[in-house]
Give the backbone structure.
Amino acid sequence: MRTVYLDHSATTPVHPDVVEAMLPFFTEEYGNASSIHRFGRNARVAVDEAREKVARLLNAQDQEIYFTSGGTEGDNLAIKGVAWALRDKGDHIITSQIEHEAVLNTCRYLERNGFEVNYLPVDQYGMVDPTDVRKAITDKTILISVMHANNEVGTIQPIAEIGAMARQREILFHTDAVQTVGKLPVDVKALSVDLLSMSGHKFYGPKGVGALYMRKGAKIQPLAHGGHHENWKRAGTENIPGIVGMAKAMEICYQELDIVSKKESQLRDALQKGIQETIADVRFNGHPTQRLPGSLSACFQALEGEALILSLDLKGVAASTGSACSSGSLEPSHVLKAMGVPIEIAHGSARLTLGRSNTQEEIDYVLEVLPQIVDRLRSMSPLRPSKEVC
Amino acid sequence: MSMKYSTKVMEHFANPHNVGQIKDADGIGYVGNPVCGDIMELYIKVKDDVITDAKFKTFGCGAAIATSSMVTDMVKGKSLEEALKISNKAVAEALDGLPPMKMHCSVLAEQALHSAIDDYFKRRGLPSPVKIKPDAHLHMGEGEKAHVKEE
């Protein structure tokens, strides 16, 4: 059966050149980067080179890059790390309602441990208003954390504006850039961020590796205590193949950024236009222009998202739902809820995220099967779409 | 915890049995609400206390559609008394099981059936043998009830 992968915000295939770059570090250059002998030295060189690459692509310095196991660890290390390091200075944290669970649940954990957290609202497009950030700042604020782009609806946040404000007030600013590194230019200086987390597998690198950028002078407490690795901020033997692979993937993505994002956004726009023309009662989510190039989120009225995703899967199309039905709660997506999407509409959400290898033929195929699926599910549904909410 | 659906659930989801409405139904059950993300509308035709036909319309996830399909299969040919004994567990078992977090869909199917049988007795002015269990899925609004009556 034909398969079409439209879930690149969940994960991406590892680029063949990345696999090739990683392979020697499993079987030949398997040294521990802490060892003195030649095996160890070679591993150290590989980690240093990867760090240099990642730093250069983020416009950072080598010693500001800390390798992690991925986005979740980076978010935890940044937020808990700052909270525990600065708890004598203040106990207030500002974040947004649309963050990834890695940020939200870390903040909730800190709330249970005596910190106060503000979860800022967003507008109908899923955008945080920098004015709201400014208003929320108190003399107890030690950290602001706002994601660079949202994983469900793709809206790109005004990070540089928030960053400039945070810098002026001398408050540390973290951004979860898991969805943007490799897809948008990310310059830590232009964005005025102090901490930035990223994850290798979102941009054609391997799973299980990520990095945290931490500006020189920023203070954090480590989560994992142990050896001297990552300048005492993250103990544990380095995942050398992963680190090498992530750096290689990042390099490829930035070399081809313009071509790939242009192609992705053209295909995404064609998909959106096709859906608009062939399916009634659809609501598109996210910002019309300030949006990740391959990201498309839509709510199909009178049907439920999981049923839509399962039906697409039966036709070989891999997508995901913003609805939390599949995660066992009856609550739909917290992101759509924060954007003011009515709950009954939010239940019918689907996220289609394109990647570098998608083709026009694949989009044509999706546009051929999707209207039939929506028709079928709606014909089974006792609900009728209501015009007011589209 | 497994999230995977059984082959049987996928079969019933891909090709559900008994989809639709019965125009001259003898009983209509309606449970769930759009805010919860699942609604089941279940129609029964009854002759001499035996369910001769059953159809459904469902808004919900894969498990909700599969349990609707299964429960309508299971009740056909059963007496009302027998039908009332069909538990949510029996529906789930007939589908070779449901992921734990989807068991509420089988509860919804049981309730939709009970609601339809209850409606059958009420339409005939007879005391209903159905004891409707209080559940999160039964808090439907008046507007939704009106919508069912119209059809």
Summary: Residues 16-255 of chain A form a domain with the Aspartate Aminotransferase; domain 2 fold (CATH 3.40.640.10). Chain A has two domains: 4-12+257-379, 16-255. The two ends of chain A are 34 Å apart (CA to CA). The first strand of chain A starts at residue 4 and ends at 5.
